[in-house]
Design a protein that fits this description.
Structural class: mainly beta
Number of strands: 8
Strand content: 35-45%
Number of helices: 1
Helix content: 10-25%
Distance between the termini: 29 Å
Number of domains: 1
Shape: globular
Radius of gyration: 13 Å
Largest sheet: 5 strands, antiparallel
Length: 104
Amino acid sequence: MGYIKLMKADGSSDLIPAEGIHHVSAPSSTNKDITLDISGSPFKYAVIAGATSADAAADLTAASRNGINAAIELANGASGPAIVVDLGEGLFCKSVEITDTAGT
């Protein structure tokens, strides 16, 4: 099973298994986080919040979604090092929250 790696501004990272992710939401004008729908029992969601290089909250973009999708495509079914997600110029992962309910 492959993993995607979300880099944080301080150099640490969060890993998410690529297997089972079947939808990546697009950020909207009312919600700038991205939600991953993850198959399983029970069904889970991973809500990803963005950050700047100074670790301040930042809006994720359509480019962030494209970067996540590209990393999932590379990592799914793979083994080896986690695939680093390109969230876009100057964007990092602020946090990942695993939840039972979809983001809004």
